[in-house]
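TL;DR need structure tokens for one chain.
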Amino acid sequence: LVDTMRRLRRRGDIAPEVSIIRDIREREFKIFTDAGRVYRPLFIVDDDPESETKGELVLQKEHIHKLMNSEYDEYDDDPSASHYTWSSLVNDGVVEYVDAEEEETIMIAMTPEDLEASKSSLSETQQKSLQMEEQDLDPAKRIKPTYVSSTHTFTHCEIHPSMILGVAASIIPFPDHNQ
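>> reply
TL;DR here they are.
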């Protein structure tokens, strides 16, 4: 039922602002439609077991090309031309809006590189040795976690790591510091 409802939301049959949650502990299926909930966009990771692209972003280069072509076509005078916009990405199931409660039930990769690392067949010791080499090169670089393929199945990916706080909060200088 939850997967069907999410598919309907990703196809655009249900409004993208609707939050769909399966609470395993309480054995509840929750649907939130109330106004005032804070939600943020995330890229969707293909989690279909039969898919060839399982574990990869649904966003492909063709989506980016459509967006770029639509931006250039914006200056054309043809009103009947269909334009590919952010809403098109949402309706195509490439981007999904997630609120705080739904965020607790999904696995979010910080970057697309983290998705690649989780899919790779490197052992944990090899990943740790690679991280140690990277740390020697740049002490300010982000520490990447090690992944165990049996426990990490990502469902979403951040658009950019600074988007964790949302667009409005990320423009505040030093949001992680007290005044």
